[in-house]
Amino acid sequence: MILIGENIHIISKAVSEAVRNRDVAPIQALARAQAQAGADYLDLNLGPARREPQEVASWLVETVQEVADLPISLDTMNPLAMEAGLKLCRKRALLNSASGKSESRENMMPLAIKYNAQAVISVITDQGCPPDVDSRVESIMETVAYANGMGIDNEDIWVDPIILPVSADQKQVREALEFIRILPDLLPGVKSVVGLSNVSNGTPAHLRAVLNRTYMVMLERNGLYAAIADVLDEELVELNSGGLKDARVLIHRVMDGELVDAEALPEKEQNYVKTARVLMGDTLYSHAWLET
Amino acid sequence: MEYKAPLEIYTGRIREVTIGRSGKAIRVGGGNILPLHHFEGNAANRPVVALEVDDNGAAGWAGPAVEPFRDVVHDPVKWASRCLELGADLVCLHLEGTDPQGANRTAAEAAALVKKMVQELDSPLIVYGCGDDKKDVEVLAAVAESCKGENLLMGPAVKENYGAILRAVADNGHCIIAQTPIDINLEKELNVKLLKHLPQERIVIDPLSSALGYGMEYSFTIMERTRQVGVVYGDTAMQMPVIADLGRECWKTNQAKSDGEQGILWESITAMSLLLAGADILVLRHPDNCRLLKEAIEDKL
User: What is the pTM of this model?
Assistant: First the structure.
């Protein structure tokens, strides 16, 4: 599975300070670290980029490209920042992201054509995030048809089902999983991508990694193509490159509805089983899900 | 051919919690059915109704809720006895008077009162602190100790103070009320923490009750889901009885304060609803509603 490094993110205090002061060192350190860890793309998340959108986007893209020879996933909802950044990308970039919202159709999608970028297209519409598989299908079919009409081919579209936190809406975790499974039948040729860490948003920080890792294995089994993820998490990268076979098999067994005897397992495997059960919706989530 | 209605059989069972010392104990929970689905299995114990007493002379109570107790509100022990005379299964004492923002009575005073009440009363006792999580630790620890072995149902234990309250309850042979703010995930988390030190048979869940028109549907949903998760899905961290401390919520609404008749209705509708949602213990203020709910529970309506 393709891993898109998420760590250059404006929500991070270190990143936002570096951007404000145009301090290249912290940004380049993050870029190098993620490249070394095995990232396939680097996500540059500028958020809404309200102040100096063009300057910030240009500076960030150049700064990262000086030290990392990886394609960029440019992540902002500001079309001005998006355009300024895409203009400078040396490798074929990923526009992250467009959606079914009318302003996105009008202002974001044309940029993918203009700069020959691939495009992340999410299931979000003017009505918000669709609540279940069927409505996600309905919205993405319509939005992708629109993008096709504009000249963006399925092969250049990375569909994002929108991952919601398990701590906020446990049911949605499984809806997204199911959506990924049926996507190739719906829209042959499209790729899929998720913002993986969102599944653990709201969960205490020291417990987030096991949720992210487990969900990645589950999504990958259902055919996910790419994840924007914490590539500095070594265990996550190891899982993605086929490691930790025992844990992967256990997660798959839980997905298949098998009754796995967690008690008999070493703690690490036990935690993967408990986490898979929570993500499948077999047990009710609480922050203490590993303690039962 | 005779028609036989299909029945759901569930794997989970709500644990039975015993409140009060032997001879005058009450048991709650214990069923393997959804609320009031007596046709599906074994209820073990029907829900019970408590009337509320406070240690602060009913300060702030709406008039119509005070009326049946007007002559005894300054003597909580007599007030509690009156509740039993009027049909309550048990009494729920709220230690409002210990609130640091109010009368700020000491832990020792509260402990002495509870001890006296539990000795004179022919029913088990539920004791709630004032809700200040620091003061409650002090007060509930003193109460737990002075009433050692009386098997009170006491709380609230909340995220911020459950450790200290748990120790006092566990060491002195009582049951604990686990309270969370209308959130099923936080509810389960607190249960998991408490279950490391206490068996399910000594825990009652308080998911917080809201009055009709003030978020009752949220409380309803959480209670309903709690029971489903425990009984239908067999989640052992969710198999404890539920307490709905709803009287106080109903009687502080503007509707209840402005019109006594309306207050009684407000409380009865909220109580009926939360009974259907799965509450095992209903805490009310008005004796008319106590009678009404008991009739409903005994299928006499």
Answer: 0.89
ipTM: 0.84
The tens digit of pLDDT for each residue in A259-269 reads 999 889 999 99
Q: Is residue A219 part of a domain?
A: yes
Distance from the A171 Cα atom to the nearest Cα atom in chain B, whole angstroms: 13
Q: Which of B13, B47, B45, B46 is nearest to B280 (CA)?
A: B47
> For B217-258, what is each residue's pLDDT tens digit?
999 999 999 999 999 999 999 999 999 999 999 999 999 999
Helical packing angle, A245-255 and A267-280, nearest 10°: 30
- Give the one of B186, B187, B192 whose C-beta lies nearest to A292's C-beta: B192
Is there a domain that residue A200 lies in? yes
Chain A neighbors of B232, CB-CB under 8 A: none
Number of folded domains in chain A?
1
Identify residue A117 by its one-letter amino acid code: A
The span from the CA of B281 to the CA of B221, in Å, is 17
For each of the domains in chain B, give its residue range(s) and CATH number, in order of start: 47-289 (3.20.20.20)
The parent domain of residue A89 ranges over: 2-233
Quote the minimal CA–CA distance from B146 to chain A in Å. Answer: 33
- Cα atoms in the 13 Å half-sphere on the side-chain side of B9: 0
* Domain assignment of residue A29, yes or no: yes
For residue A289, being part of any structural domain is answered with no
Question: CA angle, A100 as apex, A96 and A10 as ends, to 5°?
Answer: 30
Q: How far is CA B2 from CA B5, B38, B55, B245, in A?
A: 10, 21, 58, 44
**Inter-chain residue contact A286 with B196, CB threshold 8 Å:** no
DSSP A106: H
- Spell A60-93 as b/e; 16+ CB within 10 A means b: bbebbbeebebbbbbbbbbbebbbbbbebbeeeb
CA distance B97 to B57: 9
Segment A161-190 shows an average pLDDT of 96
CATH number of the domain residue A110 falls in: 3.20.20.20
Q: Confirm or reject contact between A150 and chain B (CB < 8 A).
A: no
The alpha-helical segments, DSSP class H, found in chain A are 13-20, 24-37, 53-67, 79-88, 102-107, 109-114, 133-150, 170-186, 208-221, 234-240, 245-255, 267-280
Please list the ranges in chain B whose pLDDT falls under 50: none
Contacts of A37 (CB under 8 A, 6+ apart): A5, A231, A232, A234, A237
Vertex B188: Cα angle to B226 and B35 (nearest 5): 15
DSSP code per residue over A130-150: -SSHHHHHHHHHHHHHHHHHH
CA distance B270 to B253: 12
